[in-house]
Amino acid sequence: MSSKDKILGIVKNNQPPLSELPEVPAGGASRGAGDPSSGENADLSAAFTTMLEGIGGQVFLVSGYDRIAAILREQHPDAGRIVSGCPELASFGEISAHYDDPHTLENVDLAVLHAHFGVAENGACWITEDQMIERALPFITQHLALVLRRDAMVADMHEAYTQIAKLEETGAGEYGFGTFIAGPSKTADIEQSLVLGAHGPRSLIVFLLDEGVSDAGFY
Amino acid sequence: MNANNKDHAALADEFNKDEPRVDWHDETLWWVRQKRDRAAAQVADWEVLRDTASRIKDNVLSRLSEYLQHFEAAATANGIVIHWAADAAEHNEIILSLLRQHGVDQMVKSKSMLTEECGLNEFLEEKGVGVVDTDLGERVVQLAGEPPSHIVLPCIHKKKEEIGEIFHEHLGTPAGNADPQFLTHAARLHLREKFLTRRVALTGINFAVAETGEFVVCTNEGNADMGAHLADVHIACMGIEKLIPQRRHLGVFLRLLTRSATGQPITTYSSHFKRPRPGQEMHIVLVDNGRSTHLGRKDFRSSLKCIRCAACFNTCPVYRRSGGHSYHTAVAGPIGSILSPNLDMKKYADLPFASTLCGSCSNVCPVKIDIHEQLYKWRQVIVQEGYAPAGKRAAMRAMNWVLSHPAAYHTAGKTGRWVMAHVPFTVNNGLNVWYKQREMPAAPKQSFGEWYKKNRRDHEQQR
Amino acid sequence: MRVGLFIPCYVDQFYPQVGIATLRLLEKFGCEVVYPPGQTCCGQPMANSGFGHLTQGCNDLFIKNFSSFDYIVAPSGSCVLHIKEHLHGADDAAAAIRSKIYELVEFLTDVLQVQQIDAEFPHKVGLHQSCHGQRGLKLAQMSELMAPPFSKPERLLKLVKGIELVELDRKDECCGFGGTFCVAEEAVSVKMGKDRVADHLRHGAEYITAADMSCLMHLEGILRRQKSPVQVRHIAEILNGRS
Question: Is B245 in contact with A7 (Cβ distance < 8 A)?
């Protein structure tokens, strides 16, 4: 008898009587009452920003990709190799659809990638492998920047999974690998002292794209 | 008992010899408990969420065989190879054989308490395979030659000066440098070289989704991802109980896990692995190792709902003042004390007694395991199975006899008080464990019963 | 109403004044209180040590002594919790007992609904939340839960004139007594007790009170060893006006 059969046999024999699944919250409890237009999502992007800044990320509200390039040049003046997953930033960094060997990305200083949406309750961004170019890239790069539409925001993780399902239905968000990224990599393993920059990127910038935003006063 | 045959009480006694260090350990972990409280307070429906998670896991246990088969089918369809390991030995052999198949003798590993439970590192080292633990805390204890003392904060028992010394010895950092920032950066460079050169990466699994065949690995450091995405072979290990039914259930668990564990709203990375990278092999090892047996224990099966957050460790006043190594088992703390006796009742007979049954653990548990009630019930089982020390058994029988016979009880009480009052040195001495650090209570002339008889005779009970 | 007074074995032997205070307090609020002299113990020390199967003798004695009352009241959260959860007997008698046994604070609050107490205690007092009463009998909200705060013992204490309750750093951490734990795991038990005492002392408590004398016995042992002037008082003593 295979281990599988042995295990399943004992499990089947020993499992308790059926216990029904509970209702799972739809989410959005933290949303205020109001219509789901940009007004309300502007609220979410404010909450998202506060959250992410609190965990060591930086957030910039920008009107376009020129602003993104300018801010990145300012924030990372010494960046050597820059890889861009955004065709809009073709002149800013190297653009490639694919790298045969992820090890060759070892010396990337800065990677700029699109993400699907942000989660206000924890400052996380959902990004799937088609946006990463290679799965290793968002981790192996020294510094990471993600670009989101400002109104691509959900309130919490319940709404996040609803959104992930929606993205999959449209084909845009089907994934073999996806991840939530909430801030730069970090550890507090040494006497609970928080250190930013463990094995993943040492910093994270998230750009919230909103064409309607005025550039005056931002950066 | 551990290798030296010392039980929790003896090991905790040793731990308590250094009182300032106990204070430091206790305060550090209490601080983590407080962070958990603050994070939980920010979630409006926290208690509802706990209840939801608890009931989802109840459902999982009640349909586990079905979910396991569903998961296997879905993951296999996604291109993942599934292995089944009945016990720790089989788990270890499966991993070894995968390594041999690929002609590899070096591996990186991110945190997996399951592999700790199976003794994987020791097994592989013996077979000539080098394993590098890449979680910073785990790397520290690996270099120190110790097991982790906490399932989420592996080297919480180590001071930064000690870590500095370990890194000086093994990584060549300057002697005396204990700066966490500097040491972390040194570890980053040291481990980056490992990520880039190892072809096989092993990770744990926080949650596996039956519906879609995907699994989630949560880290702050990004080490699981650095290992997996650079390796030709990604092996992921999980206990068979780590399933959840549907992907949307992740919303519930990911909201609870890290808040309960460290007080963060979420880990930096919550990585969803569904298919291998093109050209990569992805394997999952499903491990039983006593879980299917435990599933049959009516009073104890709900401990299989555990999502390994360690909130119970951080809140436990005993854990904080005795340290994880006092539990001499892979998973320590309150949850470990109700899981371990299933693995080896004799070896872990002491653990359910390493508690005052205060109940704090049950109330921080995100999946509402009745830990303190199971501790009590394990005590009954352990005694019934014959693992109580003989002296205790005799003392209990004597106590029971006295307390079942009012006249004997009154005599014993009166005698005891007389001795305490008139020949205190017979009680107040080194043989009296209470007396080591506490004064005995004063011995009153009259018990309450005697006072009542004398002063309230007219209120004799009517039967 | 006829109340059967259940006095825990160690209160009977070492702290009779707590039993006396409990008796007088209940009588002040109009109860007819009877103390069945044949009582001994609830059986908890054995049950918590894994010897629950030996407690039938204690259980039967308890049922025999207490079946005839309207209520059973004890100045001990842990004993009452034990009876509520673990008293079993052959017939309905055990179930009846479980439904009418109360710890003192919950009896005063929920049954007698006390709104006024004629007592004075002009001192700084630290309230120790004994675990079984708090988490088991829900005498007060626990810090682990995200739920509205409340505290039955605190409410009663605040009815006492002149009392000043001190804030603690850790409101509901266990004292470390834990029954046979106090000697089986002596090092951890004492360390937990010392830390509780230090918390109270840091905040200027002159007295430490609780609804369980077992906790106080343990803390007092440590206070006396430290030669501290701080004293312990069971809540019954304070509510009954002993200073």
Answer: no
- Give the Cα separation of B67 and B74 in Å (integer): 10
Contact B364, B260 (CB under 8 A): yes
Partners of residue B249 in chain A, C-beta under 8 Å: 24
ipTM, two decimals: 0.96
Q: What CATH number does domain C124-239 carry, 3.40.50, 3.20.20, 1.10.260, 3.40.1130?
A: 3.40.50
pLDDT for B225-250, tens place per residue?
999 999 999 999 999 999 999 999 99
Amino acid at B211: E
pTM (global) more than 0.90? yes
Q: Do residues C131 and C120 touch, judged by C-beta distance below 8 A?
A: no
Residue B7, token pair as written in the block: 């039980």
Task: Looking at the complex, report in whole angstroms how far the Cα of residue C159 sits from the nearest Cα belonging to chain B.
Answer: 27
pLDDT at position A41 is: 56
Q: Give residue B301's pLDDT.
A: 98
**Do residues A106 and A134 lie in contact, with contact meaning Cβ atoms separated by under 8 Å?**
no
Q: What is the dihedral of CA B371, B376, B382, B388, to 10 degrees?
A: 130
Least confident of A113-127, B264-278, B381-395: B381-395
Task: Answer yes or no: do B358 and C36 touch at CB < 8 A.
Answer: no
- CB contacts under 8 A, C 196-215 vs B, are none
Q: Which positions 49-78 of A are in contact with B (Cβ < 8 Å)?
A: 51, 55
**Distance from B404 to chain A by nearest Cα, in Å?**
38
Q: Check pLDDT > 60 for residue B462.
A: no
Domain final residue, candidates B233, B258, B289: B289
Confidence label for B422 from pLDDT (cuts 50, 70 and 90): confident
- Is B89 domain-assigned? yes
Chain C residue with Cα closest to B459: C34
